[in-house]
Design brief:
The protein is α+β, with helices and mostly antiparallel strands. It has one domain: 2-Layer Sandwich (Beta Polymerase, domain 2). 47% of the residues lie in helices and 21% in strands. It has eight helices and seven strands, in the order αβαβαβββαββαααα. It has helices at residues 3-24, 34-40, 60-69, 112-119, 137-147, 150-162, 168-177, 181-191, and strands spanning 29-31, 49-53, 81-83, 88-97, 100-108, 122-127, 130-134. It has a five-stranded mixed β-sheet. Strands 6-7 form a two-stranded antiparallel sheet. β4 (88-97) and β5 form a beta hairpin. The protein is globular and about 50 Å long.
Length: 195
């Protein structure tokens, strides 16, 4: 098997393990990064895990302890960060790969958008025997608009090439509330879509 295939298999096993820990704790969650992108668009290699979870900040230390027992490396210091234009709260755990570490970023659904995204999550088969939840294509687009790094813009292009029949009223509402409407308009212009 290729090196890429081994890394993809290992990443999916870690995603399965992470999802299992969250499910055992009764925490609603959905994958939001590359794994969700591969479910809804043209697949591309992904090297980390991103997910959103209905998690209160007070519950994070207990979850980190459970993830440590499941083989993840806990964060060394200040575990809660705010990221992106919307300042989403997240923390990271890692797993060893060779001489390095790969990240699993867990976003806390403490804001209206991420809470909405979790209510709209959809079940998918990420791998044989691994049925789990990912955010909807609309919510994934909004996450990528908030992040807006070059790799997110490339992901938006891949997503819109496959998923053009989105719930545009929903997308526009959240883009406006999160202050990313200019990014949405730029992405639509670049894709040639006129929803």
């Amino acid at each position: 098997m290729s090196k890429h295939g081994n890394m993809a298999d290992e990443l999916l096993e870690k995603a399965r393990s992470l999802s299992g820990v969250l499910t055992a704790r009764g925490i609603t969650h959905a994958f939001i990064g590359g794994l969700a992108m591969n479910a809804w668009s043209i697949p591309a290699p992904t090297y980390d895990i991103d997910l959103c979870a209905a998690l209160d900040p007070a519950d994070v230390p207990g979850l980190i302890a459970d993830l440590d027992r499941a083989g993840f490396v806990p964060p060394p210091t200040a575990w809660l960060n705010s990221v992106g234009a919307a300042r989403f709260q997240e923390f990271s755990v890692h797993w060893p790969v060779g001489a390095g570490l790969r990240a699993a970023d867990i976003f806390l659904a403490t804001d209206g958008f991420q809470q909405s995204a979790l209510t709209r999550r959809r079940p998918v088969d990420l791998a044989e025997g691994f049925r789990t939840f990912v955010v909807s294509p609309e919510d994934l687009l909004i996450y990528k608009l908030v992040a807006w790094r070059p790799k997110d813009r490339a992901a938006i292009e891949r997503l819109l090439a496959v998923q053009s029949a989105l719930e545009w009223t929903y997308v526009r509402e959240w883009a406006g509330r999160l202050g990313v409407t200019p990014r949405l308009e730029e992405a639509l212009k670049e894709s040639g879509l006129r929803p």
